[in-house]
Design a protein that fits this description.
elongated, 3% helix, four-stranded mixed β-sheet
Length: 610
């Protein structure tokens, strides 16, 4: 059965060959025939397509991506939009003949009047060239065209190129250009290099000549400089300025500030290199007045007190002061109006306390410049919420609280009990371990600050009246002192043991703890030896002793020179490198005997004997 079917197909094929017209290359627009079917395989023009008779016929069907077509018309029988360089033609296909006067094989070789032929001679081996208008589009007002790229290279007079779209733009407000590109704007306008446009000099660009990024000025007008705020200001007393608006040379009697931004008088200048014309700052008590270029006294007028730099009005204050809205210097940030360094009115949203400081916490009367430290009477500071809250209940005598539940800081006449975190009167119970403590740590495990006249122990964190006490037994008695203090066992006081201010209490020197009677040292600091006289002596730096074991000569190490003292042995001396003995116990630097070749001068110092 399959053999019969195959034989039948073969007979149909033979009949198709014998009955079909034969294709002839070069005839009927056919350029290539199929050797088997004898039908036309390829036509000689793209507007023709092979037909069923073995020849070629005009294409009545538009096919995308064929014949350079990108978009067909609604009927689908001709191309509506072609690839770049091609244009829909009268045959429904794509050609190169748009605005072309003379063409060959669909390729333009001469454009119509008002158009210019641009493009490379070869593009994907197809030779695409375009006719671009000289009066409309990219080449409008162009004087010179690059015929390869089709871009304008030089504009007509009165126009300049922009980088953004490479078009010729009217040079309105442009003063100077190079090869058709604007470089400098007319007066009262600045040049923005980012978009190559001239803009009016307004706000931060007042007196500005050039900006690169459009955000800040990069060059000022002639005779203007960059001030402390990055704006362009006039250069007073400048005899020669640079192209970028900075002053290069000042008039006689004036010299430049550090950043070449102003000319100031040489009188009352604190420091600077006058030879190269660089001034840094006026003397203390003076401010630079850019209006007349002189250093003037701050005390001449309260408006300029504490001022460092001024120009009609003060605009920069000395360290520790801040400029207010009325251009006076105040010790307070966020101040609107000041008088003689004190703030009398704060800016909106801030409140003036009794300490003359501004804080954003209402009802605050004292602050440290950042947070509130004390609220009005009847309020406490709520740390987490940065606000002064009404004090009632357990927080009646509280000044500071985290979360509004536990008090951390009490009023001056109250102390905080770390057990219940409540405030109690200081005169209620002087045996309370937290007596006189008015501020506790955040987790309430120790005291942080004591009341006025009381000192915080560095080991027990309790308050006592004894300065230098580490652990106190009561308000007036210490049992252990801090370093550089000597505990007088009899009185329970901590005495300074770092220097001698009275010969009668010289036993405190280098002593850690006295004897029970408080008349001599009972225990010396580490590194010192207790003598029979109850004094702490230095034997470590002794170089030579006599038969009785008493030091007669001290060492000299790489850092200090040691002189011999009859009371305390060897003692450091910081300025007498050639001293042997220093018997003045109130001033160890007062030498009494020098080495050979040196003598004492009127100040007790060893000088060379010439």
């Amino acid at each position: 059965m399959s053999k019969i079917k195959g034989f039948f197909i073969f007979l149909v094929y033979i009949e198709f060959i014998l009955c079909s017209p034969f294709c002839k290359e070069g005839e009927n627009h056919c350029s290539m025939c199929n050797p088997i079917s004898k039908l036309c395989y390829k036509c000689d023009k793209e507007i023709y397509t092979p037909d069923e008779n073995g020849g070629c016929k005009k294409a009545h069907k538009c096919v995308l991506d064929e014949n350079y077509c990108l978009e067909c018309n609604e009927q689908g029988n001709s191309c509506k939009n072609c690839i770049i360089g091609y244009f829909p033609d009268e045959n429904g296909g794509c050609s190169y003949t748009d605005n072309c006067e003379i063409s060959e094989g669909g390729h333009c070789i001469k454009c119509k009047e008002g158009f210019i032929l641009v493009g490379r001679e070869s593009y994907l081996n197809q030779g695409i060239r375009l006719c671009k208008s000289l009066y409309f589009g990219d080449l409008k007002n162009c004087e010179e065209v690059n015929t390869l790229s089709g871009d304008c290279e030089r504009c007509k007079e009165g126009y300049y190129l922009t980088k953004k779209d490479n078009k010729c733009t009217n040079t309105e407000n442009c003063y100077e250009s190079t090869f058709g590109t604007c470089k400098k704007c007319i007066n009262k306008y600045y040049f923005n290099k980012k978009d190559e446009q001239c803009y009016p000099q307004e706000q931060i660009f007042e007196h500005c000549k050039i900006t690169i990024d459009g955000k800040k000025c990069d060059s000022c007008d002639d005779n203007y400089f960059f001030d402390d705020y990055g704006k362009c200001s006039e250069i007073n007393f400048c005899s020669k300025s640079l192209n970028n608006g900075l002053c290069e040379e000042c008039q006689s009697g004036f010299y430049l500030t550090r950043f070449r931004n102003a000319c100031v008088s040489t009188e009352n200048c604190e420091y600077g290199n006058k030879e190269i014309g660089v001034c840094s700052n006026c003397n203390e008590g003076y401010y630079i007045d850019y209006k007349d270029g002189k250093c003037k006294q701050n005390q001449e007028d309260n408006d300029f007190k504490y001022c460092r730099i001024a120009d009609d009005l003060c605009n920069t204050c000395i360290n520790g002061y801040y400029i207010s809205k009325d251009h006076k210097c105040s010790k307070t940030k966020n101040c609107a109006e000041a008088s003689d360094g004190s703030c009398i009115e704060c800016m909106d949203g801030y409140y003036l306390g009794l300490d003359k400081l501004c804080t954003n916490v209402e009802h605050c009367i004292y602050s440290n410049g950042y947070t509130c430290t004390e609220c009005e009477d009847g309020y406490f500071y709520w740390g987490n919420e940065t606000m002064c809250e009404i004090a009632d209940g357990n927080l009646t005598n509280c000044l500071f609280s985290f979360g509004g539940v536990y008090c951390q800081k009490c009023k001056n006449d109250y102390y905080i009990n770390l057990t219940d975190t409540l405030c109690y009167p200081n005169n209620l119970n002087d045996r309370d371990p937290y007596y006189k403590c008015f501020m506790a740590s955040r987790n309430f495990d120790r005291c942080l600050h004591c009341a006025d006249g009381y000192y915080l122990g560095t080991k027990d964190y309790l308050c006592s009246k004894i300065d230098g006490c580490a652990i106190s037994e009561s308000e007036n008695r210490c049992v252990e002192c801090n370093e550089n203090y000597c505990l007088d066992v009899k009185t329970g006081k901590c005495m300074d043991n770092d220097f001698i201010e009275d010969e009668n209490i010289k036993f405190y020197y280098r002593c850690n703890k006295t004897n029970d009677d408080g008349t001599a040292c009972g225990e010396c600091n580490n590194g010192y030896t207790l003598s029979q006289d109850g004094l702490c002596i230095d034997e470590e730096h002794c170089e030579e002793k006599n038969e009785d074991g008493k030091c007669i000569k001290c060492k000299k190490d790489n850092i200090y020179t040691y002189c011999l003292n009859s009371y305390f042995g060897c003692e450091k001396t910081f300025r007498n490198d050639h001293c042997l003995e220093c018997d003045d116990i109130l001033d160890f630097n007062n030498c009494t005997k020098c080495i050979d070749g040196y003598i004492n001068n009127d100040y007790g110092k060893c000088v060379e004997n010439i």
